[in-house]
Recover the amino acids of this structure.
């Protein structure tokens, strides 16, 4: 049997229709107005630190806004440490988990449900079940923004979240290093494929300034994320410096936006938060 270009086109269209029927219906998270996902193509680029300080920056810029953080990195949850939170969530009368709160930000994480050092050795179906619980069985109250700290990469968790809930936009975090930018591009392209708007890129660890002489060194390269943003046709939301205080305060569970609000590092995160809000307004306008 000879296949023509038309017959291949028909097969492709039927496959798309079958896939569309198989996708879950998107359902908003109760009480949440807008969901912002913070993602990276690879680990180790400061995604979780950026997510936490973005959430705090949103409230710092506009205290009337309510913001929550969902740690969707099931295998390596960082939010409990970064937000200085421990303990198990209480249950409401309707059997929903109450988020743990610090710095005025309600947080939910797999880290609250397992021991600190316990490895999470789960297959895909168990991970998907955990994500479903984190999405649907938490009493967030009323939130203007829910910031979701995504796991690194472009796998099942990312697809499950993007297919199950409406997402206002994605923030891609990368260092200026070429190898990190390759994976950041894959992350951005994934969101485009699933019709999630990419709000822009955050160039993390953009420059190191010597505390002794103030000389600036671009350890991971110079402006690589800006070049990638131009290629993708998206904006750079801001630059975050490689600074000792960010690392020290994160390790103490005191994010720099609240622990040192007048510092240039905190101001950098607040500028990113303002750029995110501006992009959301542009998309909804």
């Amino acid at each position: 049997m000879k296949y023509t270009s038309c017959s291949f086109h028909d097969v492709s269209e039927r496959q798309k229709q079958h896939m569309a029927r198989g996708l879950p219906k998107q359902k908003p998270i109760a009480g949440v107005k807008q969901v912002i996902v913070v993602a990276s193509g690879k680990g180790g680029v400061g995604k979780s630190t950026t997510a936490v300080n973005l959430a705090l920056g949103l409230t710092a810029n506009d205290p009337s806004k309510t913001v929550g953080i969902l740690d969707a990195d099931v295998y390596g949850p960082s939010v409990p440490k970064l937000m200085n939170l421990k303990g198990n969530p209480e249950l409401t009368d309707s059997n929903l988990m109450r988020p743990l709160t610090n710095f005025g930000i309600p947080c939910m994480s797999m880290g609250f449900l397992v021991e600190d050092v316990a490895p999470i050795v789960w297959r895909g179906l168990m991970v998907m079940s955990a994500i479903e619980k984190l999405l649907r069985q938490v009493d967030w109250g009323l939130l203007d923004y829910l910031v979701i700290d995504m796991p690194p990469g472009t796998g099942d968790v990312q697809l499950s979240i993007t297919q199950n809930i409406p997402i206002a936009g994605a923030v891609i975090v990368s260092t200026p290093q070429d190898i990190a930018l390759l994976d950041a591009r894959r992350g951005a392209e994934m969101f485009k494929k699933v019709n999630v708007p990419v709000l822009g890129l955050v160039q993390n660890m953009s420059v190191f300034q010597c505390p002794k002489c103030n000389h600036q060194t671009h350890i991971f390269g110079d402006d690589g994320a800006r070049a990638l943003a131009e290629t993708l046709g998206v904006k750079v939301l801001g630059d975050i410096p490689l600074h000792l205080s960010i690392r020290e305060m994160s390790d103490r569970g005191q994010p720099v936006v609240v622990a040192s609000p007048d510092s240039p590092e905190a101001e950098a995160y607040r500028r990113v938060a303002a750029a995110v809000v501006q992009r959301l307004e542009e998309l909804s306008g």
